[in-house]
Predict the 3D structure of the following.
Amino acid sequence: MRVSNVARARNQRLEMHQVPREDQIELADAIAAGAKRRPSQAFGEYFSDAGGSCALGAAYEGAYALPRDPHEAHGIRPRMDRLFDCLENVRRRCPVGCNKRLPLNSIILHLNDDHLWTREQIVDWLKKD
């Protein structure tokens, strides 16, 4: 049986729409909390020597108390999937439209590093979708 283009488009829209899971909301809240602790944003690394954090670094910071000294935090490589199941088990499309569809952790890093989204924009996106 052949599927019509209308039915295919409707199914694609349904697949793309996801209700925020509880752990996605918790992840967003952790990013927001961590961003307040380290106001400057890092790109290409979880924690910068200048004292910033990327979105996933901010999530780790929001979940755990990390050293304030940027040199002590710089070498930390967090295992975020242990804190937030959604990072590995939820696949999302890039909201900017570059057609990437990756696990949530990769899309967050992509938005942070490639599209230069602020951590606050990423928080809003996680809570919206």
Remarks:
- The CA atoms of residues 47 and 53 lie 4 Å apart.
- The beta strands are 91-93, 101-103.
